[in-house]
Amino acid sequence: MLDLLDYRRRVAEVYRTVRQLGTDAPEDHARFRRVRDELFHTHPQSPLDERQKTTFKGLRYFDYDPSFRAVARVDTDVEPTSCELDLGEDGLASLRQFGKVSFELPTGSGTLVLFWIAGYGGGLFLPFRDTTNGLQTYGGGRYLYDTIKGADLGGSLDEIVLDFNYAYHPSCHYHPRWVCPLAPPQNTLDFPIPAGEMLWEPDM
Predict the structure, then answer these.
(1) Are 180 and 171 a contacting pair, CB within 8 Å?
(2) pLDDT digit of tens for each residue in the chain (204 aa)?
(3) CA 40, CA 102: separation in Å to the nearest integer?
(4) Residue 171 maps to a domain
(5) Which of 2, 6, 98, 183 has the most crowded Cβ, counting Cβ within 10 A?
(6) 150 falls within a domain
(7) Residue 110 structural domain
(8) Is residue 203 part of a domain?
């Protein structure tokens, strides 16, 4: 448990620095990548197992591109529907749809639903799929926000930062021991987002 506490603290600290410095600079993104690589390679709570760590050479990313960053207004005029996800040993997670954000990127315009993870304290959760899935990125999609685990790019009471350069894979991409909530159908985009984390394969 203390290992997990330390891991979450270190992830939260990485994102706190991102929010302080802003997400729109290549050097800040490079620092983010370095810290994540260190956590993956050395930490007991890494998504990788011990065998994978021995050959780990770093996560892969698309080249940083500031045009894949947007600040979107949160539209709360949505039906507050809920769904439950089976997380294996961690039990059931309840997600409540509470808002949506619309944005324009060089490859297309889209809308994504924002979810609130029900339970003590709650947290913002934003998973998504796009047409890079299964080709350049994990078939199950990627995350932008999971504030329970510290992944928070920032915003205000009515806006949110959508910087897809910071999109990352759920832990189940790296090892089958993990069970992860994946993006629901309404968060599937019909265009590619060539930004953020790319597929990782062992021994790369």
Answers:
(1) yes
(2) 788 889 999 999 999 999 988 877 788 899 999 999 999 999 999 999 999 999 999 999 999 999 999 999 999 999 888 777 665 555 667 888 999 999 999 999 999 999 998 766 678 999 999 999 999 999 999 999 999 889 999 989 899 999 999 999 999 999 988 888 888 899 999 999 999 999 987 754
(3) 32
(4) yes
(5) 183
(6) yes
(7) 2-187
(8) no
